[in-house]
Design a protein that fits this description.
The longest helix has 54 residues. This protein folds into two domains: 62 residues; 272 residues, P-loop containing nucleotide triphosphate hydrolases (Rossmann fold, 3-Layer(aba) Sandwich), CATH 3.40.50.300. The chain contains 13 helices and seven strands. The chain has 356 residues and is of the alpha/beta class. A hairpin with a 2-residue loop joins strand 6 and strand 7. 28% of the residues are buried. The protein is elongated and about 110 Å long. Helix content is 51%, strand content 9%. Belongs to the sulfotransferase 3 family.
């Protein structure tokens, strides 16, 4: 009976339980805040340590005789596919080279042959890797992909490229051969004088508009293997895909060239600082346009799309487009109709051993 008399009433028991629960919640909240503060402090310390390391490295570079900067050793190869807006893009590199202090070199092959002889491959690799006076360098030309690792070099160049819808590319090339463009309007082209339209060529079964003429972007990415140039080769298609994802830093599409340029500027400002603004406002960026080009009819397009060659070239184009859009989605954001490059979104933390 005595024990029962000293027990608090149920009302006070409930209040005590509630007070205890509130105290537990308050303590858990304080612990969470302390954990967040600890993480924030760790990030601040990590950033401070990285800055100290960078400052020491900068001090050492000033104090000692440095080796050449890696950025000053960079070489970019743009093995440009014909009629993919390659001249428009290359003109930007020519406009920027003096300002950004790099060299631009055109790879001019005899008769525009995209395949080099074995001895020329060796010469080219040796030139690109050892020609110190031309570094940093931007090489461009209508040449097939060349695997530098086959030649035992330690530093491989950075490959970039642009692809285009295969039928649109073929139509542009067809009229280019007959009417030229506004880049060099006085130059006489190989098919000048031939007034036959692309549709008339398709209807009559002409060779210049045959499905075999679509086979170009795949071999350019496939490279210097004989199978690459066997029209309709499934092996060549798969090799081209592998090279695109494994050997190229970035492959853009003609239809979204401005986004390609913007991403290159963000990734390689040593070369492309100011490129996006120059593309939007410069006089040369849209300079080269094929003259007298007439869009093909649906019937002509449908006839080409029935071929196995178009299906393979289009599969490669769609593959390249999907990869480009994937990279872009993780590199830029759109706001109010404008694209913005993302800032650095990673940092280092928990760096050990601690720097004194």
């Amino acid at each position: 009976m005595g024990l029962l008399r000293i027990m608090p009433p149920p009302k006070f028991q409930l209040l005590a339980v509630l007070a205890f629960a509130v105290a537990v919640l308050f303590i858990e909240n304080q612990i969470q805040k302390l954990e967040e503060s600890r993480e924030k402090l760790e990030r601040t310390i990590a950033r401070h340590e990285v800055r100290e390391v960078e400052q020491r490295q900068a001090h050492d570079l000033v104090r000692e005789t440095p080796a050449p900067d890696d950025l000053d050793e960079l070489v970019i190869i743009y093995n440009r596919v014909p009629k993919t807006a390659s001249t428009s893009f290359t003109n930007i590199a020519y406009d920027l080279c003096s300002r950004n202090h790099f060299h631009v070199l055109h790879i001019n092959t005899t008769k525009n042959n995209p395949v080099m002889s074995l001895q020329d491959q060796v010469r080219f690799v040796r030139n690109v890797t050892s020609w110190t006076e031309m570094k940093p360098g931007f090489y461009h030309g209508h040449v097939a992909y060349l695997d530098f690792s086959k030649f035992g070099v330690r530093a491989k160049p950075i490959y970039i490229n642009v692809v285009r819808d295969p039928i649109e590319r073929l139509v542009s090339y067809y009229y280019f051969l007959r009417f030229g463009d506004d880049y060099r309007p006085g130059l006489r082209r190989r098919k000048q004088g031939d007034k036959k339209t692309f549709d008339e060529c398709v209807t009559s079964g002409g060779s210049d508009c045959a499905p075999e003429k679509l086979w170009l972007q795949i071999p350019f990415f496939c490279g210097h293997y004989s199978e690459c140039w066997n029209v309709g080769s499934r092996w060549a298609l798969e090799q081209a895909k592998l090279n695109l994802v494994n050997e190229y830093l970035l492959v853009g599409v003609t239809e979204e060239l401005e986004d390609f340029i913007m991403m290159l500027e963000a990734a390689l400002p040593r070369f492309f600082r100011g490129a996006a603004d120059l593309y939007r406002t410069g006089k040369k960026s849209h300079l080269r346009k094929t003259s007298e080009k007439k869009p093909p009819t649906k019937e002509s397009i449908s006839k080409l799309q029935q071929s196995a060659i178009w299906k393979m070239e289009n599969e490669f184009y769609e593959f390249a487009l999907e990869q480009f859009q994937f990279v872009r989605a993780h590199a830029v954001r759109e706001k109010d109709g404008e694209l913005y490059v993302l800032t650095q979104n990673f940092f280092y933390e928990k760096i050990y051993p601690k720097v004194n």
